[in-house]
Write a structure and sequence with these properties.
- This protein is of the alpha+beta class and 163 residues long.
- It has 2 domains: 93 residues, no CATH class; 67 residues, no CATH class.
- The chain contains 4 helices and 5 strands.
- It has a 3-stranded antiparallel β-sheet.
- The structure holds zinc ion.
């Protein structure tokens, strides 16, 4: 239980650090994470993404290229500019474009925060992680199930044995 808990805490902290780092323009960060949108490069118009009628992001504008930008604006000298997460892209499949938007830094950080809240309720009740969680006892602690989502990460402690 202790190894799984420590592993999960580390994964969430690493993901939060990555999402935070992906939420800046130069040295200015977006607290809580950037919200990304696809925009048509030439007109700066936001692209609507419809996987039924479009193959590629920007087809609604017959766009040549699109860019992935933050909704948040940054003060850049006389202008306000977005973060350009991807400056210019062509033929981004709509399904991939949607996936990226659903996993923008703001969404990832909100998800991590919720998981950390869940973790704390189990952690607090598990005698510092050494013994079985009293919240879940006598069943298997749900944290051991949550850990499985990170099984492809280095250091995965393995599936916890059934008891
Ligand atoms: Zn538990």
């Amino acid at each position: 239980m202790e190894a799984h808990l420590a592993f999960l805490i580390r994964c969430l902290e690493e993901d939060a650090a990555v999402a935070h780092e992906a939420s800046r323009r130069d040295a200015t960060y977006v607290a809580g994470g950037a919200h990304w949108v696809w925009e048509e490069t030439r007109t700066d118009r936001e692209c609507e993404l419809d996987p039924v009628t479009q193959e590629f992001v920007g087809e609604d504008h017959r766009a040549g290229t699109v860019s992935l930008r933050s909704r948040e604006q940054f003060d850049v000298g006389p202008w306000e500019l977005s973060q350009f997460a991807i400056g210019s892209a062509e033929e981004v499949a709509v399904s991939v474009g949607l996936h990226i938007l659903r996993h923008d830094p703001a969404s990832v950080l909100a998800d991590i925060e919720a998981k950390q809240d869940i973790l704390r309720t189990h952690e607090r009740l598990s005698n510092g992680g050494r013994s079985a969680c009293q919240r879940c006892w006598p069943a298997r602690c749900e944290i051991l199930i949550m850990v499985r989502a990170y099984r492809e990460r280095p250091g995965y402690p393995g599936d916890a044995p059934e008891r």
